[in-house]
Amino acid sequence: MDIRRPSCALALILVFCLTEHAQCMNTKINFREKEKQILDQILGPGRYDARIRPSGINGTGDAPTIVRVNMFLRSISKIDDYKMEYSVQLTFREQWLDERLKFNNLGGRLKYLTLTEANRVWMPDLFFSNEKEGHFHNIIMPNVYIRIFPNGNVLYSIRISLTLSCPMNLKLYPLDKQTCSLRMASYGWTTDDLVFLWKEGDPVQVVKNLHLPRFTLEKFLTDYCNSKTNTGEYSCLKVDLLFKREFSYYLIQIYIPCCMLVIVSWVSFWLDQGAVPARVSLGVTTLLTMATQSSGINASLPPVSYTKAIDVWTGVCLTFVFGALLEFALVNYASRSDMHRENMKKARREMEAAASMDAASDLLDTDSNATFAMKPLMHDGVVDSKMRQCEIHISKKRKNCCRLWMSKFPTRSKRIDVISRITFPLVFALFNLAYWSTYLFRDEDEEQ
């Protein structure tokens, strides 16, 4: 009996232990409850002060807090040339180490803690220095979160929309490239307390298939832009976005219509010089249309003190159209001058004919001695006519081809029209050659 009692007791103890172990295995750990306990432990009253910045490198209070920044550009909605600004939507992220927020990860089962209230922990006082307007996104919930990792790393992420200033140089408009910056800096903490650094490895990401109506994002560059003021030196980061303007829109809307207006103004050179209403109405219409086109272009651009590439184009086209109108004024004046000259010649010929008739009648009334005196006069007249024919023959040989071709047009007004038909297109073609070679084949250094 004494031997059996210990064996029964051992059996009962073994069964009890196996039962308790099975119950422990079936019990699940409530990680949400554990998260609450950890948050209360590290952020409870008297345990964490969000007003004090984290310690620097190696936990020393003298070293500045390092904050690494990266962002994801979701969209660029517009680039306004008149206001010199652009709008962008991005996901902005900051990451830093706060050793006061370390916690037990339960054997790797708890990867991080998530917060939605930014005021619970210390936050860098970053601001966008070239911001004009900005807002957060709160639909359906505020688009912001904070992740606290077991080693004390803090990740802050927020989705924001910004309207930023972008000073532009429009000397080459619309064949230009513009660089728009996004600047971030510390507002109150100097570099002795807070330093911003770009995250290593692709700190700026851009959404695929980014579409802009009139621009193309060629590339972007990250850099530092620390600023010194009377109160100290402040850490600053910047992203330079290089945009190239799409030229096809301006080619269709501006350049081709201007060329067509200039060519239409040349039609007056082929109209008869007597068609005054047609030539005047054509010249005035093209001139007013060109002036309206030029004013419409400048209405969408800010008033600047320098000459833009589009100003050179519209100014020269307007000059050509105005020159065509002045050419008709010159033709009209030459036509009236030619008519006046013809009338003068006709009157002179009539006067000479009348004088010759009077001289002939006087000779018939004289005595017979006058008959013998006419022979040497007739001889002299024959000699003079032969000499004149020789001079005309020699002068014809000396004429070049241009004078020979111009002699086909007897009036000066017709000659002006013919010269204009060749001169205006030739000069406009030379201008196009100089214009496009200057603005299309320029160096990148000149653009900057």
TrEMBL record:
Any one GO molecular function term: transmembrane signaling receptor activity
Keywords, sorted A to Z: Cell membrane, Chloride, Chloride channel, Disulfide bond, Ion channel, Ion transport, Ligand-gated ion channel, Membrane, Postsynaptic cell membrane, Receptor, Signal, Synapse, Transmembrane, Transmembrane helix, Transport
Record has Cell membrane as a keyword: yes
Record-linked Pfam families: Neur_chan_LBD, Neur_chan_memb
Signal peptide location: 1-24
Alphabetical list of PROSITE patterns matching this protein: NEUROTR_ION_CHANNEL
Lineage top rank: taxon: Eukaryota
Membrane-crossing residue ranges in chain numbering: 247-270, 282-301, 313-335, 418-436
InterPro entries, A to Z: GABAA/Glycine_rcpt (IPR006028), GluCl_TM (IPR044721), Neur_chan_lig-bd (IPR006202), Neur_chan_lig-bd_sf (IPR036734), Neur_channel (IPR006201), Neuro-gated_channel_TM_sf (IPR036719), Neuro_actylchol_rec (IPR038050), Neurotrans-gated_channel_TM (IPR006029)
Domain (Neurotransmitter-gated ion-channel ligand-binding): residue spans on this chain: 35-245
Coarse class of the protein's main subcellular location: membrane
Membrane topology reported for the UniProt record: Multi-pass membrane protein
Localization per record: Postsynaptic cell membrane
Family matches, as CDD domains: LGIC_ECD_GluCl (cd18993), LGIC_TM_GluCl (cd19062)
A single GO cellular-component term on record: chloride channel complex
Keyword Ribonucleoprotein among UniProt keywords: no
Residue ranges of domain Neurotransmitter-gated ion-channel transmembrane in the record: 254-352
Similarity comment: Belongs to the ligand-gated ion channel (TC 1.A.9) family. Glutamate-gated chloride channel (TC 1.A.9.4) subfamily.
Record's protein name: Glutamate-gated chloride channel
Species of provenance: Parnassius mnemosyne (clouded apollo)
